[in-house]
Amino acid sequence: MLKDSELIQIRRDLHKIPELGFQEVKTQAYLLSIINELPQEHITVETWKTGIFVKVEGQDPKKTIGYRTDIDGLPLTEETRYPYASTHEGQMHACGHDFHMTIALAALESLAHQPADNHIVFMFQPAEEGPGGAEPMLRSEPMKRFKPDVIFALHIAPELPAGVVSSRPGLLFANTSELFIDLKGQGGHAAYPHLTKDMIVAGSFLVTQLQQIVARRVDPLDSAVITVGKITSGSVQNIIAEQARLEGTIRTMSPQAMDRVKVEIEKIVAGIEIAHDCSATIDYGSNYYQVENNPDYVDKFAAIAKDSGVTYREASAAMTGEDFGYLLKEIPGFMFWLGVDSQSGLHTSHLAPKEEALAIGARLVVNGLRQL
Ligand SMILES: [Zn+2]
Ligand SMILES: [Zn+2]
User: Please, what CATH class does the domain formed by 175-287 belong to?
Assistant: First the structure.
């Protein structure tokens, strides 16, 4: 097992070089530099785009256990002032994927020296934050050779103390979809509204009407969220706007609710086109399938966590999204939260996970891979 100081060094090296989805070139090279130094006797390494598959042959295999880490950073300017802060301007490991990679490397190092009974496959997956790497990696050619029978992954949890992990059987993360709606009408002089089709008015109606979907179209016991986070329209105070763009996100607790919400959005947008005499286009951008944990594996994992001296807590489901859901759609398994005790949350410029959680996570993942 790597020493605590080695884990911290790897994490800091990776933290300095965050890269966006499918641009993780330096990250991939760094990961390979560590992987290539391991004993190669039992391992097979194959790259896929900016990702990597590594298989460790088991000693007495009954199945293949998969472990996935995401490897990308976010388009965010770091404000931590750490000496090992991001050296890539405007990019940061603000979702803890530097932690995730370090823990995966630590587990791989342990297994490469001393293989488990079962085969183990590590997936270093690009582009979790967008446009989504899990689904294409699942459909990739190398996956045919590496496909595991069970798979798990972790995500850091800033709100939990180090030494605590949590998960739950069933739904952990929501179905998510981006939402982009473009409206096009007829601009003109602010004093002659009757000669124009005002897209600020149309866009405002649309935002209000979208709220009705959650309130009146989705089963209250099957929650949904529609958030419009950004509107762009208009150029100056005395010109009626010709275009409007709404950008938002949809979150639901079931894939059926996601389908329902989209149908309702399309109906409302069609109504806006008629009522406001404009044309509209809808783009759902990237979509993530829900993270649905297998109850039996969650139970086994909870027991392994307790045996590893880690406190296990039952999590509640969250409306956040994770493209790991695509892997769990086809391969049974689970995701768990690893406590890292940071005042600042995920996707913030001050995220500061406690590095003592690295060794805790690494030990737990190794035990999971050896015992599941
Ligand atoms: Zn994230
Ligand atoms: Zn993340």
Answer: alpha beta
How many A from CA of 314 to the centre of ligand 1? 21
All structural domains of the chain with their residue ranges: 4-172+290-371, 175-287
Active-site option among 19, 24, 70, 198: 70
Annotated catalytic residue 70 = yes
Q: Which top CATH class is 4-172+290-371?
A: alpha beta
Residues with CB under 5 A from ligand 2 (ion): 95
* pLDDT tens digits, one per residue of 244-302: 999 999 999 999 999 999 999 999 999 999 999 999 999 999 899 999 999 999 999 99
Q: Identify whether the C-beta of residue 121 lies closer than 8 Å to the C-beta of residue 140.
A: no
Distance 256 CA to ligand 2 centre (A): 25
Q: 172, 154 in Cβ contact below 8 A?
A: no
| 129: annotated active-site residue | yes
Which residues contact residue 313 at a Cβ distance below 8 angstroms, ignoring those fewer than 6 apart? 160, 164, 165, 166
